Amino acid sequence: METVVLGGGCFWCTHAVFTLVRGVLAVESGYANGKGPQPTYEQVCQGDTGYAEVVRVQFDPAQVRLEALLEVFMAAHDPTQRNRQGHDVGTQYRSGIYCTSAAQEAQVRAWVQALQAQWPAGAPIVTEVEPLHNFWLAEDYHQDYFERQPHQRYCALVVQPKLAHVQALCAPHLRATG
Q1: Which residues are catalytic?
Q2: Which domains does the chain have, with CATH numbers?
Q3: Residue 161 and residue 178: Cα distance in Å, rounded?
Q4: DSSP 3-state assignment of 174?
Q5: Percentage helix, strand, coil, to 5, in the chain?
Q6: Along the 178 residues of the chain, how does pLDDT read in single tens digits?
Q7: Which one, of 97, 174, 154, 95, lies nearest residue 131 by Cα?
């Protein structure tokens, strides 16, 4: 089993996306790479903790390659937006890949660099790639949020369209549904 931590905007969206990916064993919403112990959602939203909203993704590399997870991640958010995703604005919504080993960090950096070379001119990828310094689980009510509240307004307007987009672009990497 391997772990990577991904920040791509609101963790409700990112969590919902990665529960669909074949080979993913667990997805947990949380906060990464900030200052201070055990941050709360309210503290993170104030914008002065340095934490990003993230998901910790545990996966079986025999079933899904890290590169496949990164492809899904890039399809699930806009890696060219700094400190925001859509209407969600703040440093906690930054795009980031937080690596759990030096080897993983080197692999991710090379992958992002290759992706940038293919990316449209004038749209630099601003996703930060850093070692994972710290991770704190988000409050219980954030875990599996979309799965528990699919009809909540934000879920209907933001999460569901994002899932449809990822399903259209990344079908080979997703679990069969139905």
Answers
A1: 10
A2: 2-173 (3.30.1060.10)
A3: 18
A4: strand
A5: 40, 25, 35
A6: 999 999 999 999 999 999 999 999 999 999 999 999 999 999 999 999 999 999 999 999 999 999 999 999 999 999 999 999 988 999 999 999 999 999 999 999 999 999 999 988 778 999 999 999 999 999 999 999 999 999 999 989 999 999 999 999 999 999 976 5
A7: 97
